[in-house]
């Protein structure tokens, strides 16, 4: 009996060891590179060994962990909120064509307004609320709003292969962070439930807040003014500010992530792992890169090929794209 138990335990442990930690990834260079990097990083005595305290992995959100087409999801929330606000306060739209477009649900009109117009919509829809009220508002929106193409709730539009990667890294004592151009408080509403990433490990853009205290409350209240834009060169700055360690693994999908990948790749004596998601699957998701107003990818892809970064061809490297598709399969 004891021998049978030992044999079963050995077989079980071998089966667990041989289990594929990335089942939604097809066998190929991208998957092999990831597995090799992690195996070497956690093996004491290996020249590529990384002590657990320095196993920092950072990921963009929009287009890397969840979809970003046909528009950024936070922008969808902001437009919906402006529409609701305008019903009670139509004067807020006066002499502001961008807010008028938002109130009418004209996404293309808002996008055509450029960076400044987007900031106007974000400021109008986010400011004036306490941080707690804002998070409640986002939570209620996520529970009811639907993606225009898939019909799924927005927080269900997550990439199953990336969820598996996050779990695999954490199973090997990596600490996973989100570093996004999206709003820090917006992402913090769902990051732990959806990605297993707690709110204190989310870095993102933010508008200014002020502290307001009364006899019964003490709250931070959002103001209509940009505080920090966490994109492009801002990402390495934010990583240093919030984390204080250089990442050894970084994942992104656009030129907005280019500098974060450079920061990880050029780590001195120990170069990090740079992962670039290339949207090539027009059938299961979307195909876009250079010239796209959402998630444009040009310079980062060029450097990825020059420096040997791992580029994920979504069409060929992923068996499954979205987590909600697993049930159907």
From TrEMBL:
It comes from the Bacteria. Pfam families: HAD (PF12710). InterPro entries: HAD-like_sf, HAD_sf. GO terms for molecular function: hydrolase activity. Residues 1-19 form the signal peptide. The keyword Signal applies. Keywords: Hydrolase, Signal. This is Haloacid dehalogenase-like hydrolase. It comes from Roseibium hamelinense.
């Amino acid at each position: 009996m004891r021998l049978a138990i030992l044999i079963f335990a050995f077989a079980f442990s071998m089966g667990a060891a041989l289990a594929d930690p990335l089942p939604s990834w097809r066998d190929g260079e991208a998957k092999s590179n990831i597995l090799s990097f992690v195996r070497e990083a956690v093996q004491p005595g290996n020249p590529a060994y990384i002590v657990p305290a320095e196993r920092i992995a950072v990921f963009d959100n929009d287009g890397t962990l969840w979809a970003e087409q046909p528009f950024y999801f936070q922008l969808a929330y902001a437009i919906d909120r402006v529409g609701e606000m305008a019903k009670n306060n139509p004067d807020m739209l006066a002499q502001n064509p961008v807010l008028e477009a938002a109130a009418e649900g004209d996404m293309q009109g808002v996008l055509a307004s450029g960076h400044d117009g987007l900031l106007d919509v974000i400021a109008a829809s986010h400011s004036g609320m306490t941080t707690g009220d804002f998070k409640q508002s986002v939570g209620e929106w996520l529970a009811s709003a639907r993606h225009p193409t898939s019909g799924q709730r927005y927080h269900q539009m997550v990439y199953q292969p990336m969820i598996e990667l996050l779990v695999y890294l954490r199973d090997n004592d990596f600490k996973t962070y989100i570093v996004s151009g999206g709003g820090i408080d917006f992402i913090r509403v769902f990051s732990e439930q959806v990605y297993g990433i707690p709110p204190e490990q989310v870095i993102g853009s933010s508008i200014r807040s002020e502290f307001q205290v009364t006899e019964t409350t003490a709250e931070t209240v959002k103001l209509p003014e940009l505080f920090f834009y966490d994109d492009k060169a801002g990402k390495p700055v934010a990583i240093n500010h919030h984390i204080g360690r250089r990442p050894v693994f970084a994942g992104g999908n656009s030129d907005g992530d280019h500098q974060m990948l450079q920061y990880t790749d050029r780590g001195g004596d120990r170069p990090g792992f740079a992962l670039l998601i290339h949207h090539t699957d027009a059938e299961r998701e979307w195909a876009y890169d250079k010239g796209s107003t959402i998630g444009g990818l040009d310079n980062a892809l060029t450097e990825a090929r020059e420096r040997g970064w791992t580029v994920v061809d979504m069409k060929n490297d992923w068996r499954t794209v979205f987590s909600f598709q697993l049930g159907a399969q």
